[in-house]
UniProtKB/TrEMBL annotation:
UniProt-recorded name of the protein: Nitrate reductase molybdenum cofactor assembly chaperone
Matches recorded under InterPro entries: DMSO/NO3_reduct_chaperone (IPR020945), NO3_reductase_chaperone_NarJ (IPR003765), TorD-like_sf (IPR036411)
SUPFAM superfamilies on file: TorD-like (SSF89155)
Cross-referenced Pfam families: Nitrate_red_del (PF02613)
NCBIfam families on file: narJ (TIGR00684)
Tree of life domain: Bacteria
Any one GO MF annotation of this record: metallochaperone activity
One Gene Ontology term from the biological process aspect of the record: nitrate assimilation
Length: 233
């Protein structure tokens, strides 16, 4: 029997990309990194393309490799154009389970546990004096990065650190497919504390097995107030 006719009954075990060393950033550099990453990870609509020149200029003051990653990403988006970039965004984030931008999904998937996880996110925002918009679920990575940039609160740092596993799974998936968005997630990872061995082992499990798949509704969240400091909305 020719080798080429054999079925693929075994595959090479998945591995994680190399660990990234955190960069020493000032508070201002970390704030700018998180705000720019938040905007670049959003859906690239017409408004997204109108502000990339401003984001490119803001990236120039960030240290390497973060600044060059942002500028290179913006160059690729500008060259691709809105329609092609939007199609690639949807293909990447809406159609691939391991490329979710919703952090609690990596640990709970579409199971009943996710409801409790989302409530925890909402309570954390409110504990810091903020509230998430009703337009997105509270575990949306760009929203959490915006919260970190705007608040500078220890709560936002703790939320990001607590979900490093999910961010690392997202990074692994994006790097594995050669996605341009991998460079943005790498920048986020390098702005956060290093991941320990136990965490990386849990990440590898998620990379291999994927999130749980029990589907449930999330309508219990109801209407949430806008994402703004309490008392200023």
């Amino acid at each position: 029997m020719a080798v080429t006719t054999l079925r693929n009954r075994v595959t090479r075990q998945r591995s994680l990309p190399a660990a990234l060393e955190p960069l020493e950033l000032t508070d201002g550099q970390r704030t700018r990194t998180h705000m720019i990453a938040s905007l670049l990870l959003d859906y690239p609509d017409e408004l997204w393309f109108t502000r990339i020149d401003t984001l490119e200029h803001a990236s120039d003051s960030l240290p390497d490799p973060i600044g060059t990653a942002f500028v290179g990403f913006i160059d690729r988006a500008r060259s691709a154009g809105p329609l092609a970039w939007q199609r690639e965004y949807v293909t990447t984030f809406d159609l691939k389970r391991k490329c979710s931008l919703y952090l609690s999904y990596f640990a709970t998937g579409d199971t009943r546990k996710r409801g409790s996880a989302l409530v925890t996110f909402i309570e954390a925002y409110r504990a810091a004096g903020w509230a998430p918009t009703e337009d997105e679920l509270p575990d949306y990575l760009p929203m959490l990065l915006e919260f970190s940039a705007k608040s500078g609160d220890d709560v936002s740092a703790a939320m990001l650190t607590a979900h490093l596993e999910g961010i690392e799974v997202l990074r692994a998936a994006l790097e594995d497919m050669g996605s341009p968005w991998a460079s943005i997630v790498r920048a986020v990872v390098r702005s956060l504390p290093v991941v320990d061995r136990a965490t990386r082992e849990r990440v590898l499990d998620l990379v291999t097995e994927g999130p749980p798949t029990e589907t449930v509704g999330l309508s219990f969240l109801g209407n949430l107030p806008p994402f703004s400091p309490k008392g200023t909305a």
